[in-house]
Design goal:
This protein is an alpha+beta fold and about 325 residues long. The chain has 7 helices and 19 strands. The chain has a 9-stranded mixed β-sheet with strand order 1-8-7-6-15-10-11-12-14, with helices on one face. The two termini are about 35 Å apart.
Length: about 325
Amino acid sequence: MLPRFPAVTRCLSLAALLAAGPAAALEFPLPPPGEDVIGQVQVIKAKYEDTFADIGTANDLGYLEMIAANPGVDPWLPGAGTEIVLPTRFILPPGPREGIVINLAEYRMYYYPKGQNVVHTYPLGIGREGWGSPIANTKVTAKTPNPTWTPPASIRKEHAADGDILPAVVPAGPDNPLGPFKFTLGVPGYLIHGSNKKFGIGMRTSHGCFRMFNNNVLELAKMAPVGVAVRIINEPYKFGLSAGKVYLEAHTPLDDKGDPSVVDKHTAVINALLKREDLANNMRMNWDMVRDVVAAEDGMPVEIAVPTTTAQPMVSSVPFDMQ
């Protein structure tokens, strides 16, 4: 029997929902030009000892995206035999498919290796309250294996206030919060790096840097060269086209400081759609489904429009309120 998903996820194909077994590293063939959707949603059965953190680590998924895809399931004790949705289907982020693209609202990175027709995607920890990650166009300026960590004065002061006295320099090793590898970015003070803690990937836990699972950062280190472009965006609503149908993927909006934001969702969704001029004609929008997808914020692509034989603007009228 299929699990009881929210209404917005029931329209996923049976084949997608029944794909079983843990995923390998999340590498996908790039779809052809004009197509935007990669991967398939999977369902596995939890073992007695499983937690969302364990399942996420094994499947390159972050903690919050596991929670969003499995409402009502206890993340610390799902229970043996409980069906767990793995949200391993994605709409590629808007903009050029090149270099590293980080979408803050998604807690996720996409990497497009130059000259290869594939995309790799990884979950990220991003800046917590008061330490927001930046929105920027930058690049990787240095790569450092086994990095030491020199805590900034602000972080040493913060830790000292809690009775934790940090050394001036933390040597490389299992206790180093940068993990086994770091990428230095052109934005001063910000890094992409591993971590000495598995928990926190896919959450707002860092001082603004981008944390990765150690196996992921080591994999990326083998592929991404110094100088590769890094584009950091904040797009909670992604529209995409696949096989002539339009899909919407919704995440909880974050403000410019990286904090959860109470936004005008109606305006935000329409603005995101208007950026996709290629979707604006010959489609019939299911606005009720759009409302359900935005309300669910479960991070999984859902079909929200189909082709029509009569050309009509996609955004001619919006007969509902998403507030």
